[in-house]
Specification:
By secondary structure, this protein is of the alpha/beta class. The protein contains nine helices and eleven strands. Among the domains are: about 1-65, Arc Repressor Mutant, subunit A, CATH 1.10.10.10; about 160-260, D-Maltodextrin-Binding Protein, domain 2 (3-Layer(aba) Sandwich), CATH 3.40.190.10. Strands 3, 4, 5, 6, 7, 10 and 11 form a seven-stranded mixed beta sheet that branches. Strands 1-2 form a two-stranded antiparallel sheet. A two-stranded parallel ribbon has the order 8-9. It starts with a helix and ends in a 9-residue tail after the last helix. The mean pLDDT is about 90.
Length: about 290
């Protein structure tokens, strides 16, 4: 079986579009269509249902996704291990990451790693906990930078204890205090970012058994941050997220203080590619507390 066929198939799965897969691979629309059709003929059943919005997997197609990912991962390992034996590090590295980590730590990590291993091509995929869980379960990335995941099996490498803080408008009665009591969360209008997605907000509220007075929900933390600045309510988030943001928002630690462990989730460290292992080893040499954002 031609490896290009299942590479095209997996790209179409990830992008939900044959057109996007064709653009990524540098093929024409008719070219990618022929490749997928050839793969379907070889297997003896259709993989996709075509529609105006793109493609969706058939039930048989869903069954083949993890199999093709395993094959793709194995071939990449063959290429990277052979390059490693020759004294060069080449290949691809696919990384899942929180948006907050992607915008703060990741530029430093990628710049330094790229200087050491210019032959490695890197792709970054951002999202929250549920997206990271899906990446790990599908093995569609080599590793994820996130907090501990509840719905996946993986190896865990801790990196950093990030504080979860309260975001308050500048005119909030508690804005001048040294901390914000967790018991006071329900006393102010609350802006909830991506509720029900197993975020740090969801986890903290569940742990404390607190029901906030939710007045607004958003799908983006930066939107929430600016709504807090406008005086529409309070919110909760990681301290890491807003280090480069400068709206009129007061960040206070909670009383008692609250933390979320951040680290690297790897589907299987023992089976990780040479490039993945070298990237993790490089990241572990960095003192994250000394990074300047």
């Amino acid at each position: 079986m031609d490896s290009n066929k299942y590479e095209a198939f997996l790209l179409a799965v990830d992008h939900g579009s044959l057109t996007a897969a064709a653009e990524y691979l540098g093929y024409t629309q008719s070219g990618i269509t022929r490749i997928i059709k050839s793969l379907e003929d070889e297997l003896g059943f259709p993989l996709f249902i075509r529609n105006k919005k793109g493609v969706t997997l058939t039930e048989n197609g869903k069954t083949m996704v993890p199999i093709f990912r395993e094959i793709s991962h194995a071939l990449q390992n063959v290429q990277q291990i052979s390059a490693d034996i020759r004294g060069t590090v080449r290949g691809t590295l696919s990384i899942g990451s929180y948006n907050s980590i992607a915008g703060s730590w990741m530029p430093f990590f990628l710049k330094g790693f790229r200087e050491l291993y210019p032959g490695v091509s890197i792709s970054l995929h951002e999202g929250g906990n549920m997206t990271m869980e899906r990446f790990i379960n599908e093995k569609s990335v080599d590793c994820c930078f996130c907090s501990r995941l509840t719905g996946a099996v993986y190896d865990w490498i801790p990196l950093y204890e990030d504080e979860v803080v309260a975001w308050l408008p500048a005119n909030h009665p508690m804005a001048g205090k040294k901390s914000f009591p967790v018991k006071m969360i329900p006393d102010s209008p609350f802006i909830h970012t991506t509720p029900g997605q197993d975020t740090e907000i969801d986890r903290l509220l569940k742990k404390l058994d607190i029901t906030p007075d939710v007045k607004f929900t958003t799908m983006n933390a930066f939107t929430t941050y600016n709504m807090v600045a406008a005086g529409l309510g309070i919110s909760i988030d990681q301290r890491l997220r807003s280090q480069k943001w400068n709206a009129d928002v007061v960040e206070l630690p909670f009383a008692p203080r609250q933390y979320e462990e951040l680290g690297i989730a790897v589907p299987s460290l023992s089976e990780a590619s040479p490039a993945t292992k070298k990237f993790i080893k490089y990241v572990q040499t960095i003192n994250i507390n000394e990074l300047e954002f």
